[in-house]
Amino acid sequence: MSDTLTEAHAALRRWFGYESFRGDQAAVIEHVASGGDAVVLMPTGGGKSLCYQIPSLLREGTGVVVSPLIALMHDQVEALLRTGIRAAFLNSSQGSAERADVEQRYLAGELDLLYVAPERLNTESTLSLLGRGRIALFAIDEAHCVSQWGHDFRPDYLALGALAERWPDVPRIALTATATRATHQEITARLGLGNARHFVASFDRPNIQYRIASKAEVKAQLLDFIRTETASAGHPIAGIVYALSRATTEKVAAYLAQHGIDAVPYHAGLDAATRRRTQDRFLREDGVVVVATIAFGMGIDKPDVRFVAHVDLPKSVEGYYQETGRAGRDGEPATAWLAYGLADVVQQRRMIDESPGDLAFRRRLSAHLDAMLALCETITCRRQNVLAYFGQDSAPCGNCDTCLEPPTSWDGTVPVQKLLSTVVRLQRERNQRFGAGQLIDILRGSKTARIEQQRHHELATFGIGADLSDLQWRAVVRQSIALGLLTPTGEYGVLTLTDASGSVLSGERQVLLRHEPERRGRSSGGGGRKQSPAASDLAPDALARFEALRTWRTGEAREQAVPPYVVFSDATLRALAAANPGSIDQLDGISGIGQVKRERYGAALVDLLGGGL
């Protein structure tokens, strides 16, 4: 083992209380601590932060971390301070006196890590300040924000490539949890990291169970899902529900609250104080569910989020993976639940059509949507589909809805031909275009006022699809769109044929569709979440100790005004409950208890556990 790695292991044990590195962490840390540049692709919860925090501790000077959100900086700095690491941030939340104090500490060499936003780093005043001190390294977190084709593009990230020109001898490390091959290449090019060493870990998050349901009464479906997950855990659980619009977040949060869930909305239309209170509650209290737009996004560093739900179709697999990755950061069982329907597809297509970008940009958006639809409609393993999107091969996971309850397919060629034929006849015979609702009414032979008014009962296809229910026909339409046989256009989502439609109409192409279950309500795709290790892995006496430790942790966190996980993670509490140490010396080797936390909390822990629990 090299001297650098020996020092890194010592730092890991001293400051963070862990005995060993995971995956590529050791290799990344050794490379960067030795002065090399790196591009690191590692899943959320994979330990990216240690890849720049430990090199910052080993190298002379201060590690400068580019972080996209103020809330994220606050949480990371707070957690580092609790371990004894000298960390600070510079951002707009500070007054002039506080900023001046941080600047003086940096210039005096009294900081191990300094967090800044890209917007602040790109100002000449900040660059000048950094130039007067000693920089250990630059860490560019959430590096996918540099990609103009990405889901979280931040223009100020584009200027970060100039850091190499100003400080050519300072190592740089770019990190992200979500990047396709194209995004990976763009990160490398735009940040000037052509000579960097690349570390690409597996994108797999095996602790997350992926489940996708067809929309019916989505609020009721969501409520049923949360209640089931809560019952499985045995106590209220934290979760995030994502929606596309502010109005939806308000309505869904109100509905959940009316039915006994501690749910609150979060979106950019709320004032800053309300958003901060909501985030503080989510981080510091147990069992809070936040219903949010993606504005809640990257500011979440809470490890014990037990589920992420989507009540609207995400715009891309990258965005979906980034958002679902906020569940189960502690490595314990978590669920990613999504409900989507035909209206979601129509809405997304309309948004693309109305996009202000050029044709190439709209085509890229369409490709993102097509990949998301393929994930929703697949009859094979969801995880395989997600990982393949990021260029990674895998075997069926056994922990997604399609693995746990494999869907069946059926030959939908004839129904799809009937649907396409109806679109053709309306356009050729009547010069008309309609959305899914009217097409289904025609096929099912429904005698509505609109059918009579438009004389659609005179069409040759009227009533030829009466053998399928309205629900089944909506599934046929939705899957036809996903397969590229129809495309919704315009404000009302009227359906038109595509170039691929002809081969189906001529009988040259067979169309296999996945079966749509008739029973609605809780069609969440697979059994409930795996039982929490807190309930399944501990003996009854250890479980009692675990609950007592959780109560103690809540009190400590409240007294210090920090999130509970900043004191100790659930994993550390479980290890304590299982080991039941009788002295401070016996705390050594328990994961998550470093030197500073041992000195700060050791006596209290031993007293608590020695009290007959």
Q: What report would you give on this structure?
A:
With 613 residues, the chain is α/β, with parallel strands linked by helices. 46% of the residues lie in helices and 13% in strands. The protein has 27 helices and 17 strands. A 7-stranded parallel β-sheet has the order 3-4-2-5-6-1-7, with helices on both faces. A 6-stranded parallel β-sheet has the order 8-13-12-9-11-10, with helices on both faces. Helix 8 links the parallel strand 5 and strand 6. Helix 1 packs across helix 3 and helix 2 packs parallel to helix 3. About 3% of the residues have low confidence.
Find the structural class using helix and strand composition. Answer: alpha/beta
> What share of residues is helical?
40-55%
Distance between the termini: 42 Å
Q: Biggest β-sheet, characterized?
A: 7 strands, parallel
What is the number of helical segments per DSSP (H or I, 4+ residues)?
27
Strand order of the largest sheet: 3-4-2-5-6-1-7
Contiguous uncertain segments of 5+ residues: 519-535
Cα gyration radius (Å): 27 Å
- What is the overall pLDDT average? 88
Short structural summary:
This protein is 46% helix and 13% strand.
Features:
613 residues; alpha/beta; 7-stranded parallel beta sheet; 6-stranded parallel beta sheet; 27 helices; 46% helix; 13% strand; globular
